[in-house]
Amino acid sequence: MSYAQLQQVRLVHLVSGVDEDGPTGGGGDATSTAISGYTEWVSKGGLMITVGWDWQMLPQRGCELTRASAPSSNLMLQGPAGDDLGHQKTAILLETFIDNFNWQSEALQYINIRYSN
Predict the structure, then answer these.
(1) SS (H, E, C) 87-110
(2) 10 Å Cβ neighbour count for 103?
(3) How would you classify residue 114: left for phi > 0, otherwise alpha for psi between -120 and 50, otherwise beta?
(4) Model-level pTM?
(5) Domain residues of the chain, as ranges?
(6) What's the pLDDT tens digit per position in 52-96?
(7) Inter-residue long-range contacts of 13-20, CB under 8 Å, 24+ positions, other chains counted
């Protein structure tokens, strides 16, 4: 699959969660921490693509989620001649793809529902 073809794929939210391990220690002083977690997405129809990455909710950005890791995926992108681009180039292009679609609101809504009980 080329990057141009990837841009036509519609990803559907599968699951998101909050990391259970929090900061350790603490001597009673207030410290600023980030909430972190993960999100997983799959393609809808056609070739089955899975993409997942870690996110953070930083205190200075309110409830906004930001990608905090390189994505993991079952996808290897190909160049114009059909040759594999390799893991590093594929990861960089997947980061660009992720950073250019609105995943944050759907993941945050899912997290709110999942952890509100």
Answers:
(1) HHHHHHHHHHHHHCCCCHHHHHHH
(2) 20
(3) alpha
(4) 0.84
(5) 3-17+34-110
(6) 999 999 777 677 899 999 999 999 999 999 999 999 999 999 999
(7) 13/39, 13/40, 13/41, 13/103, 13/106, 13/107, 13/110, 14/40, 14/41, 14/42, 14/50, 15/39, 15/40, 15/110, 16/40, 16/55, 16/107, 16/110, 16/111, 16/114, 17/111, 17/114, 18/111, 18/115
The first and second tokens of residue 44, run together, are 């809808």
Where residue 28 falls (left for φ over 0; alpha for ψ -120 to 50; beta otherwise) is: left
Scanning the structure block, which residue is given the tokens 């759907």? 106
CA dihedral angle for residue 8, residue 40, residue 58, residue 65, rounded to 10 degrees: 40
Q: Rounded CA gap, 26 and 6, in Å? A: 45
